[in-house]
Specification:
It is built from four helices and two strands. With 133 residues, the chain is mostly helical. Helix 1 runs antiparallel to helix 2, helix 1 runs antiparallel to helix 4 and helix 2 runs parallel beside helix 4. It is globular, with a radius of gyration of 15 Å. The termini are far apart.
Length: 133
Amino acid sequence: MSPRKQERRFAKEYAQVLWRIAEGDFRTVLVLAKASDYRVENAFYLAQQSIEKALRAVLVHRGIAIPMIHDLSALLSKLPDDCDSPYGYELNALSEYATIRRYEEGSWTPTSEELQDILTKTKAMLDWAKSKI
């Protein structure tokens, strides 16, 4: 399939829907982060999903076709020059939580500091996206 067919445009109104879903994913991350017995990788996965949906919301609002993949770099690269995100390509490290890390256990356990860092970044991305839509 050609790359162009792997991209899709959505109605501008869908940006608000995506943002609300992103916010819901983030609220779920916050609940998980307070739990005592869970796979911390799941919190990172939902943080990645929240950021992905926030980026998609901004792109949809701008009328930009979005790639139908779970790759934060690909989404970030679609942002116009006047719409830089707070963390840029630094966020791409989270993309593996939407793919390979969902199917691994114990190869790496994030620290509480790393979790707090990703919570801060996810919240900043949601705030940024809200300001853009």
